[in-house]
Write a structure and sequence with these properties.
globular; Rossmann fold; 8 helices; Isochorismatase_domain; 7 strands; alpha/beta; single chain
Length: 179
Amino acid sequence: MSLHQDNTVCIVIDIQERLNPVLADAETMVERSRILLQGLQAIGIPLLATEQYPKGLGHTVPAIRLLLDGVPIFEKTLFSAFLPEIKEALEKHHAENVILIGAEAHVCMLQTALDMRSAGLNVYIPFECTTSRAPANKANALEQMQAAGVVVSNVESLLFQLLGNAKHPVFKTVSKLIQ
């Protein structure tokens, strides 16, 4: 299980306007997600995004949406984001590894991670890029995901795994993001 630029995709799950205000530590989650997304974009990792019932929960929060220019955003009512359109996009990108960020950890993130693991994908979750309304639900979800073989990691580790070498052309760009 190894992260590489040519076999990894990141999916932003349901970081939405009407959901975010009720989430624990949402501000930090958005801030860390922005750092990760900027680093992934510098490295060239493809991004996808979902919105859970945007008519009721609103669209992706502006701070994240600004980084999703040209990124396909799929609407859903299913809790799992492993939609046919997402599967198709992952196949198109030859993804073996998926980095998941978003909300809520114990609902959409958990169901997505479990579905992707069942499909044989390697799943990575930076712990600071997900949250739930109740911190205990986030902790429980991360435990369940780890038990299913999901790698619970952090922004800095994932970015440096993808770089692999201080001589990578965007090393300086990425290292400035995480200081």
